[in-house]
Amino acid sequence: MKRILATIVLLFAVTCPLFGQAKAQAPEPKKGTSVEQELTKLSHQWNDAMAKRDVAASERILSDDWISAGFEEGVGTKAQFLADLKSGDYALSSTVVHEMKVRAYGNAAVVITHYTTVKEQYKGKDISSPYRTIDTWVRRGGRWQCVATAGARIAQK
Q1: Range of the domain at 132
Q2: Is 23 part of any domain?
């Protein structure tokens, strides 16, 4: 029994500093910028990239496992989105952001955006509408990437 207890104490003593080190190595936001500012800027950059059909910028912003739901294509993947952007099947001409809220949770964050105007087409069909979107972001390797997007049209009165 004493041997088991001694082994548990030894394992605890060895692993505790390791967990402390892992926590200390977590990437921090750039000096002088808050998470809210970083993610607001990235969200605007992504809107600009979509409007310019900038596939490379969109590819950097989205994680490889990014998924979207609630839009014209139903549930979509990064590969599908980038293909639609590159081919012109998806075309965004402008957005007007009414409100953007960022909620940070360590290395994860949620950005909720209310767009009063989104002028866009999908496969030649005008799908312009006001939208509300929820983007989930994760900080990996010192940079933020969007891992999931859900969107819904706002019914016009």
Answers
A1: 33-153
A2: no
Kindly report the CATH number assigned to the domain that includes residue 146.
3.10.450.50
Could you report the per-residue pLDDT of 94-138, keeping only the tens digit for each?
Answer: 889 999 999 999 999 999 999 998 999 999 999 899 999 999 999
pTM metric for this prediction: 0.76
At residue 45, φ and ψ (nearest 5 deg) are -60, -40
Task: Flag residues of the chain having pLDDT under 70.
Answer: 1-33, 72-73
Per DSSP, helices labelled H in 25-144 are 35-51, 55-61, 78-87
Spatial CA neighbour of 46 closest among 152, 149, 116, 124: 149
Q: Which of 77, 98, 89, 90 is nearest to 154 (CA)?
A: 98
Q: Please, are residues 35 and 102 in contact by the beta-carbon 8 Å criterion?
A: yes
Whether the Cβ atoms of residue 148 and residue 76 lie closer than 8 Å to each other: no
